Amino acid sequence: MANEEFSKALEVSREIGLTVTGRKSGREISVPVWFVREGGKLYLVPVNGSDSDWYKNVLNTPMIRLAAGGAQLSATATPITDPARVGEILDMFRAKYGAQDVEAYYPKQDVAVEVPLA
After folding, report:
1. Where are the domains of the chain?
2. Tens of pLDDT along the chain (118 residues)?
3. CATH architecture, domain defined by 2-116
């Protein structure tokens, strides 16, 4: 039921809230992120690629929480480092958000994260 509510919220959201566990502090840290959906999975791209703090936190503790439109989803994030797959995900980002904005906001494009919706 919660997954259905979250999926519906995604349809009208341009960005979602991502909550990770700090690898040094152990505290929850929330940041807004862009996303794309493909089938039953969400893909996130860290703004500063593999240098992004939230990405490093996911490597340490893959359990994350996402929030959209009042709905939440807890899931295990899987890092993606294969350049071809990262490129495909970035192409989906360009189609959704515009190539110019993706290039402007994502200077380092070396990793992505996959999050199952079910």
Report:
1. 2-116
2. 458 889 899 999 999 999 999 999 999 999 999 999 998 999 999 999 999 999 999 999 999 999 999 999 999 999 999 999 999 999 999 999 999 999 999 999 999 999 999 8
3. Roll (2.30)
